[in-house]
Every structure is written in C-alpha cells, then in structure tokens.
Amino acid sequence: MTVLAEPVTLAKLSLLCGVRLGVELGKSVVYQESNRETRVDVMESVRGQDIFIIQTIPRDVNTAIMELLVMAYALKTSCAKNIIGVIPYFPYSKQCKMRKRGSIVCKLLASMLAKAGLTHIITMDLHQKEVQGFFNFPVDNLRASPFLIQYIQEEIPDYRNAIIVAKSPSAAKRAQSYAERLRLGLAVMHGEAHQSESDMPDGRHSPPLSRTVTGHTGLELPLMMAKEKPPITVVGDVGGRIAIIVDDIVDDVEDFVAAAEILKERGAYKIYIMATHGLLSAEAPRLIEESAIDEVVVTNTVPHEVQKLQCPKIKTVDVSMILAEAIRRIHNGESMAYLFRNIAVDD
C-alpha cells in the first residue's frame, strides 16, 4: 500500500493519516510549469500496488482537481493495481441538480475521475447522498457526525439545555438525527431574508424572436402560481436555550449570521454552528467574528488554518482517525460496516 498526497495538500490531514497507519507518504512531485500546465512525476514504483491519493480541496479548487486527475492518470499508466481517491470534501457537490440552463457539474467530475483511472473513492458527508449514483465505481461516504456529537457532549457546557436547529427545512433530516442521538429538542427555521436563486428571472418568459407561425398556436397549460417566501420564522422554542445549528457545509456565512440574529431575538443565549466542511470563503472569518455566533465547529476535511488565525471562534475537529481506518480496511479487504454502525439511511 502506498499513500500519496499532492503538494497543495501535503499538510496536516495527510500526515495524520500516515502516522495513524504507520506508513510514510509516497514520493511524488507535482508542480506547475511556467505556462500553468500541471506535471506529475511518480518517484517510486507503484506497479501492482494499491495507491491511495489523499486530496483535500484548498481555495484553488480547479487546480487541485487537475492535479488529482493528472496524478491518477500517471498512476494508471504506471500499472498501479487500484487507485483510491481519498477526497474528504468532494468539490462541486453542490452542483448536483439541474438548475435552469446550467448543468450537473458533479456528474461531469465523476466521469472525469473514472476516466483518469480512479477505481474507488473515500469521501465524507456528500452534499446529497444520491451523488454516489453518479459514479460507476464504489464510493464510501463516511460520516463526521460521531465526531461532532462527541464535541458537543465534551466541549459545550450544559449541552443538555441545548436545542438542535435546522437552518432550513431541507436540513431538517440532518438536524433530527443529531437531536435524536443527543436526546435534545428540535427547531426548524423557515423563510428567507432575500430572494432565492430559483426565484430569479432566467429569461424563460422572454418574448421569442419574431417569426411567423402558422397553424397550431400551442397548448393551453395550467398556470402555476408563483411562490411567496415568508420572512424568517422559527418553529420551536429556543428561549433560554443553547442553539446548535447543524449543516454539512459552511461557506458563505451570511445565512448563518442572519439565522443567529433571529435566534438571539427569540431568546437563545448561545449559538453554535456545527458543520463537516469549513470552506469559509471570502469574508467569512470577519463576518463570524462580528456576528452573534459564539463558535463555529468544523472538521479538518478542508484546510482552514488561515481562517482560524483571523477568527478565534472557529474550532476544528480531527477526523483523520476514520479516514485512516477506511484506508486500512479497503487495503486489507475488510468490511466497512463497522464505520457505519448505528447510521441510518437518512443520516
């Protein structure tokens, strides 16, 4: 077994996995030439071996993806037996549904990874579990919730007085899972403070180009009433409680900041954000620091050391243990069921 990490991510998560497995990282060189082309040199024999590529996704997402593709193809042409991508945060996972005249980019990326030579993927908390169906090879979608629940129990004083909050109805299933495991109450936030993307005009009702049409004028279809979003409301009593908002990704934090303000107005005296992937893009650290949020807890699936220096409210939970165990079990041909014990389909 050989574990490789790409230079942009040759950092804590890769090293932690190597230490837990008792192996040294494989020798490879990945760099960009002067014209920005990606080049990969594998510095040791990989013929007939199981190769695990650990690739967390930094801010330069597209460069990281290209490096992963080129490295996988280099290993494929070097006759590696199996090439397993360890991608804790799967990029473009939010683009997994057709929107207007867009495309399902997540499906495109899945096809590119298969074409490059990957034979298996280990990831964590996909944005939609159905994304696994985009791949024509095995995908192990691990869960970070055991680590985050352990953090709640050990690091949040008086967590028994907390209530789990879903930021939107779509996040209710995840929040319900946390609430049932912690034996806590559940609150759901409903409504939006701004116009959603799905309600923005997309030109579908624009007048067509002028042309003469003879004969049939078209069918009279039933007219669908437009949705009207109510202002943000909270279903559930958060007064005098610790509010714990759970989600899978923390990226642009404006929605979380707005939710925290509403919860403060409803009487919550402490507000925590628990999420698997801390992308924390743009002005996220500053907005968190200036907001009513007391703490943002994320795992180390995505590097965020710089953001932590900018905002002391950001805390990190290490998930290298479960990734290392998944690597070990796959290499030894052992069952992965132990890593999914007590996890239901909806979790």
Summarize the structure.
GO terms for molecular function: ATP binding; magnesium ion binding; ribose phosphate diphosphokinase activity. The protein has nine helices and 14 strands. With 347 residues, the protein is α/β, with parallel strands linked by helices.
Helices and strands in order:
Layout (H helix, E strand, L loop, with lengths): L1 E4 L6 H10 L6 E5 L5 E5 L7 E5 L6 H17 L4 E5 L18 H12 L3 E5 L14 E4 L2 H11 L6 E5 L5 H11 L2 E6 L42 E3 L6 E9 L3 H12 L4 E9 L5 H7 L4 E5 L5 H6 L3 E4 L2 H13 L15
Parallel strand pairs: 1-4, 4-5, 5-6, 6-7, 8-9, 8-11, 11-12, 12-13, 13-14
Antiparallel strand pairs: 2-3, 9-10
Approximately what portion of the residues adopt beta-strand conformation? 15-25%
* CATH architecture title of the largest domain: 3-Layer(aba) Sandwich
Q: What name does the CATH topology of the largest domain carry?
A: Rossmann fold
Order of helices and strands: EHEEEHEHEEHEHEEEHEHEHEH
Q: Portion of residues in helices? A: 25-40%
CATH class categorisation of the largest domain? Alpha Beta
Distance between the termini: 31 Å
Give the strand order, joined by hyphens, for the main sheet: 10-9-8-11-12-13-14
Shape: globular
Kindly report the average pLDDT value.
Answer: 88
Number of spatially distinct domains:
2
Tell how many strands the DSSP assignment holds: 14
Largest sheet: 7 strands, mixed
GO cellular component, one term: cytoplasm
InterPro entries: Pribosyltran_N, PRTase-like, PRTase_dom, Rib-P_diPkinase
GO molecular function, one term: ribose phosphate diphosphokinase activity
Organism: Mastacembelus armatus
